[in-house]
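Quick review question:
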């Protein structure tokens, strides 16, 4: 029997693609959504759907405590479809809040349930202006007074919480997403990543990732993803094969061994 895993934000753009990969690899996946309307979609993916809001601390604690997952993936966001420009100013504030408060609640629930490893979504386009390509040691743009600063401060809060928690914390800084469900068919300029490659990075990090931060973006001179390529074997050209089941379990190691190397804190 596969290991249990909980995907927070399973109905999101990356979450949907990721859940498909995890189910195909033999994980027993439970995934959260805030919308009852998205429950059938998650069931169709083979996911045990859980309707819970990350701001409902008590319910989140109960849910993760009952599921008892071996690992958790944090894919929580609060953004409009296709990043609708008319809705982005208020979405930036909401998204920063979910990165700060939602992350805090999720981590508390993980610690209470004895979860050992968490992989969390961040972004690779919140760096301060500076020399290119940005690597994981480049400073975030937290001193900006505009929307970019709000975003960067939310990102910094999420990352610091994940890396300082008494868990094996891994942060994936995704580039600008494109592909199915994102509203963008082609790679944006300045550090893009296909949604399937982003999902694959989370899957690889579960087994192969060491504690810390990884950039996950295509090579165009903006973002350096050398660390992810070397440590995770991640490549930006990964795509889900829509015509057949896809699994790299034999190549990467089965989920039953997922806790090997993951228990050192």
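Suggested answer, residue by residue:
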């Amino acid at each position: 029997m596969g290991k249990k895993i909980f995907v927070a934000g399973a109905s999101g753009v990356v979450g949907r693609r990721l859940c498909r990969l995890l189910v195909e690899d033999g994980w027993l996946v439970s995934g959260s959504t805030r919308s009852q309307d998205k429950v059938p979609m998650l069931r169709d993916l083979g996911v045990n759907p859980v309707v819970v809001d990350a701001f409902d601390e008590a319910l989140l604690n109960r849910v993760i405590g009952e599921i008892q997952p071996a690992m958790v993936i944090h894919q929580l966001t609060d953004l409009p479809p296709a990043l609708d420009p008319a809705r982005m100013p208020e979405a930036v504030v909401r998204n920063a809040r979910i990165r700060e408060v939602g992350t805090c609640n999720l981590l508390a629930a993980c610690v209470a349930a004895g979860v050992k490893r968490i992989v969390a979504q961040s972004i690779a386009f919140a760096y301060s202006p500076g020399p290119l390509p940005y690597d994981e040691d480049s400073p975030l743009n937290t001193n900006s007074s505009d929307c970019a600063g709000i975003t960067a401060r939310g990102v910094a809060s999420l990352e610091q919480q994940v890396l300082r928690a008494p868990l094996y914390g891994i942060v994936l800084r995704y580039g600008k997403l494109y592909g199915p469900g994102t509203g963008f068919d082609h790679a944006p300029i300045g550090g893009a990543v296909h949604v399937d490659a982003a999902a694959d990075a989370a899957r690889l990090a579960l087994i192969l990732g060491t504690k810390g931060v990884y950039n996950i973006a295509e090579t165009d001179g903006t973002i350096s993803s050398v660390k992810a390529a070397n440590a995770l074997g991640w490549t930006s050209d990964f795509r889900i094969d829509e015509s057949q089941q896809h699994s790299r379990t034999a190549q990467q190691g089965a989920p039953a061994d997922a806790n090997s190397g993951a228990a050192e804190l």
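Why it works: The beta strands are 4-8, 28-33, 48-51, 71-74, 117-123, 168-174, 176-178, 192-194, 212-216. The chain has one domain: 4-239.
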